[in-house]
């Protein structure tokens, strides 16, 4: 299951022009273009540091709650190496994007999901450079004998009109994307 989903996902990542035109063709995916989400909510302005060790979790949540949730905005994670020690749930929100151009590596050891998008509509999750992604570091999880069901990377709960494209999800301890 895990492996076949990974290869399906990597196949998808080859389309670097997916953006919102998915919706133009088939009425799937986000209903508005990225140009309509131009207010940048840079996580570096909300406490993130590209130092490979500062927990980016609170900065993502703060950028969402204080900047992106109202819409017309993009949570922006610039190129660089980040660590994620605590998990976040982005509740609600519409008409926003999540642009991951850096690499986030899992350092936290809780179960659950690293990032949950819940109840959002018109949501686009992507990497503009196709070089952003999340390193789940599952090999360490399993080496520690912590069991099969480690944390997942993304979970989408009751979201409508959304897409994920052009980013890499590597070595999740359990599933890469859960859609509920
Ligand atoms: C999702 O998109 C469809 C097609 O554009 C639209 O009819 C529908 O109202 C949208 N749903 C929400 C919750 O905005």
Kindly describe this structure.
The protein is α/β, with parallel strands linked by helices. The protein has a single domain (about 30-180), classed as 3 Solenoid (Pectate Lyase C-like). It is about 20% helix and about 35% strand. Strands 1-2-5-8-11 form a 5-stranded parallel beta sheet, with helices on one face. The protein has a 4-stranded parallel beta sheet with strand order 3-6-9-12, with no helix packed on it. A 4-stranded parallel beta sheet has the order 4-7-10-13, with helices on one face. The longest helix has 12 residues, at about 55-70. The radius of gyration is 15 Å and the shape is globular. Bound molecules: 2-acetamido-2-deoxy-beta-D-glucopyranose. The site of 2-acetamido-2-deoxy-beta-D-glucopyranose (NAG) has 5 residues, from strand 11. 2-acetamido-2-deoxy-beta-D-glucopyranose binds near residues 31, 121, 160 and 161.
In short:
The chain is an alpha/beta fold.
Under the CATH scheme, which architecture would be assigned? 3 Solenoid
CATH level 1 class label: Mainly Beta
Can you summarize the main beta sheet?
5 strands, parallel
Give the number of domains: 1
Estimate the helix proportion, in percent: 10-25%
- The end-to-end distance, rounded to whole angstroms, is 16 Å
Rounded mean pLDDT score: 88
The sequence of SSEs as H and E is HHEHEEEEEEEEHEEEE
Number of strands: 13
CATH topology: Pectate Lyase C-like
Which consecutive residue ranges, at least 5 long each, have pLDDT under 50? 1-18
Radius of gyration: 15 Å
